[in-house]
Q: What sequence folds into this?
C-alpha cells in the first residue's frame, strides 16, 4: 500500500495529516525524497560502475575534446530509481495514469539499457541498430497508446496551443498514431541531445516542470475551467511523478555537471524522453511539448536536416549534427554550449506555460 494512504488514514487521529490529500504537498514531499535518494545513491552507483568497468564508449567522429571514454555510464538508472521510488511512495497507485507513466519510463528504459549493454560488450558505441531500436520503441508505444485510448476510453480531442476553441476530435484511430509519434519522437530527441555534460538533463527538468503545472491544472476542475483547458479526472496524480522526475534529475545533475562523474546513457535518455511524452499525452498538451521541449526539437531537426541535405547535395548544413557539436566545432567551450542551451530551454518552458492564458 502506498505510504501516503497509510499516513493519510491518521488524519482521523491528527488533522495535520489531512494535508496529504493535496497533490501539491505530496509533490513537494516526493521531490524532496527523490532528491535525497539520488544524492545518496549517486556515489554508490558511480563506485559500483567503476569497479565493474562500466564506462562510456565514444564514437570516433565526435570532437576530440569530447572523448570521455571510461566515464561511468548508465547513470540514468539513478534517475529511474529515485523517480520511481518517490512516485510509488507518494502517488495514488490506484490511479491508472500513474501506472502508465511508470510503464513507459520502465519499458523505454529497458530498451535503453539493452542498447547501453551492447555498446559495452561490443565497444565503439555499437549498440542496438537504429531500425531495431525504433521497432521496439514503436511496439511499446502502440501497446500503451492502444490501452489508453481503447482500454481507458481516454479523451480523443486534441488541444491546440494558443487556440482555445480548436479541439479537433482525432478519434482513437488518429490519436493512437499521434501518441506513438509523440512517445518515440520525444524519446529519441532527448537521446540526441544527450551529448555534453549536463546538456540534456537541464531541458528535462524545465520540461518536467512545465508538465507538472499542466498536469496539476488539467486535474483540477476549478483551474481547468478557469483557464479553459481540458479537465482530465485523476491526472493531477501525475504531478507527483513529474515532481519526482524533476528532483531526481536535479540530483543526477550533481554528478553529471562538467566534468561529469557519471553519464546518463540511453537507459536514461530514452526513458526520460518517453516519460515526458507520456505526461504530455495524459495532460492533453501534446502539441505544447514541441514548445516546452524546444531544445530537444532543435537538436532532432538539426540531425534530420543534416542527413537529408547531405543525401541530396553531398554537402553539410552544419559542421556536425546534433547542433551542440556544431557549436563545439565553431570553438564554443562545452560549458558555454550547455548553459546557453539551458537558457533557451527555460525560455521555451515559459512560452509553453503562457499558452494557458494566451488563447
A:
Amino acid at each position: 500500500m502506498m505510504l501516503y494512504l497509510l499516513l493519510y488514514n491518521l488524519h482521523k487521529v491528527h488533522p495535520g495529516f489531512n494535508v496529504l490529500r493535496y497533490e501539491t504537498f505530496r509533490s513537494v514531499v516526493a521531490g524532496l525524497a527523490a532528491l535525497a535518494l539520488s544524492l545518496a545513491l549517486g556515489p554508490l552507483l558511480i563506485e559500483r560502475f567503476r569497479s565493474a568497468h562500466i564506462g562510456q564508449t565514444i564514437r570516433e567522429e565526435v570532437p576530440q575534446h569530447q572523448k570521455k571514454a571510461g566515464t561511468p555510464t548508465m547513470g540514468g538508472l539513478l534517475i529511474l530509481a529515485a523517480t520511481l521510488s518517490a512516485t510509488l511512495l507518494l502517488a495514488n497507485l490506484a490511479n491508472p495514469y500513474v501506472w502508465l507513466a511508470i510503464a513507459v519510463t520502465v519499458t523505454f528504459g529497458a530498451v535503453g539499457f539493452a542498447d547501453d549493454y551492447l555498446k559495452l560488450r561490443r565497444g565503439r558505441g555499437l549498440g542496438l541498430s537504429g531500425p531495431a531500436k525504433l521497432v521496439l520503441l514503436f511496439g511499446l508505444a502502440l501497446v500503451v497508446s492502444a490501452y489508453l485510448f481503447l482500454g481507458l476510453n481516454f479523451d480523443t480531442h486534441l488541444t491546440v496551443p494558443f487556440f482555445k476553441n480548436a479541439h479537433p476530435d482525432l478519434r482513437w484511430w488518429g490519436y493512437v498514431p499521434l501518441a506513438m509519434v509523440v512517445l518515440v519522437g520525444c524519446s529519441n530527441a532527448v537521446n540526441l541531445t544527450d551529448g555534453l555534460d549536463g546538456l540534456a538533463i537541464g531541458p528535462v527538468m524545465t520540461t518536467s516542470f512545465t508538465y507538472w503545472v499542466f498536469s496539476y491544472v488539467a486535474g483540477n476542475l476549478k483551474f481547468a475551467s478557469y483557464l479553459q483547458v481540458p479537465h482530465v479526472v485523476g491526472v493531477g496524480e501525475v504531478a507527483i511523478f513529474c515532481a519526482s522526475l524533476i528532483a531526481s534529475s536535479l540530483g543526477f545533475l550533481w554528478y553529471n555537471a562538467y566534468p561529469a562523474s557519471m553519464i546518463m546513457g540511453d537507459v536514461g535518455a530514452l526513458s526520460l524522453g518517453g516519460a515526458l511524452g507520456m505526461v504530455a499525452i495524459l495532460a492533453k498538451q501534446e502539441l505544447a511539448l514541441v514548445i516546452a521541449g524546444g531544445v530537444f526539437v532543435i537538436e532532432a531537426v538539426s540531425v534530420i536536416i543534416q542527413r537529408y541535405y547531405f543525401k541530396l547535395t553531398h554537402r553539410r548544413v552544419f559542421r556536425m549534427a546534433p547542433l551542440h557539436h556544431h557549436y563545439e566545432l565553431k570553438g564554443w567551450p562545452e560549458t558555454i554550449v550547455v548553459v546557453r542551451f539551458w537558457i533557451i530551454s527555460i525560455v521555451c518552458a515559459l512560452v509553453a506555460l503562457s499558452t494557458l492564458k494566451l488563447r
